[in-house]
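Quick one, C-alpha cells below:
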C-alpha cells in the first residue's frame, strides 16, 4: 500500500522533483505568514541572547510552520512535507524578490559571485496509523553564479521567472544558463533534497519507495 505524501508548498519545481522520483503528492498550500514566522524567530533569538538566526534556522522554521499549519487546518491522514528555500550571500539571506527592480538589483550583486542556497525540510507523520513523528533538517548547496551582463540581467528579469523563486534564480528553468556550477545537492537547489527526504523518512520508519504508487 502506498504511503500518502502531502506537499505543503505551491512550488511547481518541488512538485516536479517529487514526480520525477516517482512520488505523486497531494498539494495543499499553507496560509502561513512568513514574515510573522521570521519575526517570532528573531524575537526568540534576541530573548535568548543568541543573535540573528542563521539561514538554516530560518528556512527550517518556515518549513515547519508550513507543515504544521496544513496539519492543523486539514484532516490529512498523510505524511506532510513542508519546505522553504533562501539564498545566503555576504551573510544576508534572500527569499523571493517579488518585483522586477528587486530582482534586477539582486542579480547585480550575485553575478560572478558565490552564494549558498539553504532549503529547510519538515516532515509530520499525520497518519492515523503512523508514528505521529515530527522532524526536520536543512540542506545547503553552494551556487556559483555567472558574470551576467546588464543586458542578460534585464532579459532574464523580463521573463518574470526570477521574481517568484528563492534567491531570484533557478537551475532547472530559464536561469540554468546563468549558474556556472554548484557544489552539493542539485535537488536541494531546485527546492527539495531527495537524499535528505529519504533520510528523514527513514527516521519516521518509512522507506522512500513506500511513497511511490
Amino acid at each position: 500500500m502506498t504511503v500518502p505524501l502531502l506537499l505543503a508548498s505551491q512550488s511547481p519545481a518541488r512538485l516536479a522533483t517529487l514526480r520525477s522520483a516517482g512520488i505523486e503528492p497531494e498539494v495543499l498550500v499553507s496560509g502561513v505568514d512568513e514574515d510573522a514566522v521570521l519575526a517570532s524567530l528573531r524575537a526568540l533569538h534576541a530573548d535568548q541572547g543568541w543573535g540573528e538566526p542563521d539561514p538554516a534556522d530560518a528556512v527550517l522554521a518556515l518549513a515547519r510552520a508550513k507543515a504544521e499549519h496544513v496539519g492543523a487546518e486539514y484532516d490529512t491522514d498523510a505524511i506532510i512535507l513542508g519546505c522553504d528555500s533562501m539564498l545566503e550571500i555576504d551573510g544576508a539571506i534572500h527569499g523571493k524578490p517579488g518585483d522586477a527592480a528587486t530582482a534586477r538589483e539582486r542579480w547585480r550583486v550575485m553575478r560572478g559571485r558565490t552564494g549558498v542556497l539553504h532549503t529547510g525540510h519538515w516532515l509530520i507523520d499525520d497518519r492515523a496509523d503512523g508514528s505521529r513523528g515530527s522532524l526536520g533538517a536543512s540542506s545547503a548547496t553552494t551556487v556559483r553564479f555567472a558574470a551576467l551582463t546588464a543586458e542578460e540581467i534585464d532579459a532574464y528579469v523580463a521573463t518574470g521567472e526570477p521574481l517568484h523563486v528563492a534567491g531570484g534564480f533557478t537551475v532547472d528553468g530559464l536561469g540554468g544558463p546563468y549558474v556556472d556550477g554548484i557544489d552539493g545537492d542539485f535537488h536541494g537547489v531546485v527546492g527539495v533534497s531527495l537524499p535528505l527526504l529519504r533520510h528523514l523518512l527513514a527516521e519516521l520508519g518509512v522507506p522512500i519507495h513506500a511513497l511511490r504508487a
